[in-house]
């Protein structure tokens, strides 16, 4: 499968776990330090809209990346945003376009940018699953593709931690599977969030 299809699978799984949340769940803590589930899903929703805009040559317009102040129906808003980004990525020639991604400081080849989106939604799908205490359902090939991207993320501690996209990388134990390795490389502690099957 190509990166567009692998990303589609990750995004659909993220939407599935978001839709498991009930009214009383939105204040739950998540593995994203300082973010409850409502804030995490607002971030995911905004990122979908931003990447959809980037796929259509409008990634530099910061309004597309802005999080909603207070979404009455977070799961519904997230599903609409997921559908929007999947539609944008499915357009002919998208992997060959340049995506402007302001948070990452510039333009990237479409295939590379979709890879960034893929790893983000593998990890955020796990974040949501961890907050809700449910199992994630992702095929190994999706996790392996995410791992390939995660291994290329710089580990310089001056660019990790509060205020940055990722927490400091954690040690990966021998024998870790691709999802666990991805999570640890991006600063997540699977053992602190039982129930997800990692």
Structure report:
The protein has helices at 3-18, 37-55, 74-89, 110-132, 140-150, 178-185; strands at 98-101, 106-109. It is mainly α. It has a domain at 3-138: dinb family like domain (Four Helix Bundle (Hemerythrin (Met), subunit A)), CATH 1.20.120.450. A two-stranded antiparallel ribbon has the order 1-2. A hairpin with a 4-residue loop joins strand 1 and strand 2. The longest helix is centred in the middle third of the chain and has 23 residues, at 110-132. The radius of gyration is 16 Å and the shape is globular. 41% of the residues are buried.
Give the total of beta strands.
2
- CATH homologous superfamily of the domain at 3-138, by name? dinb family like domain
Given the helix and strand composition, which structural class is it? Answer: mainly alpha
* C-alpha-based Rg, rounded: 16 Å
| Quaternary structure of the protein | single chain
Gross morphology: globular
**CATH class wording of the domain at 3-138:** Mainly Alpha
Tell me the helix content.
40-55%
Strand content: under 5%
Q: Remind me, CATH topology of the domain at 3-138?
A: Four Helix Bundle (Hemerythrin (Met), subunit A)
Order of helices and strands: HHHEEHHH
Major β-sheet profile: 2 strands, antiparallel
Enumerate the spans where pLDDT stays under 50 for 5 or more consecutive residues: none
Instruction: Kindly report the average pLDDT value.
Output: 93
N-to-C terminal Cα separation, in Å?
A: 24 Å
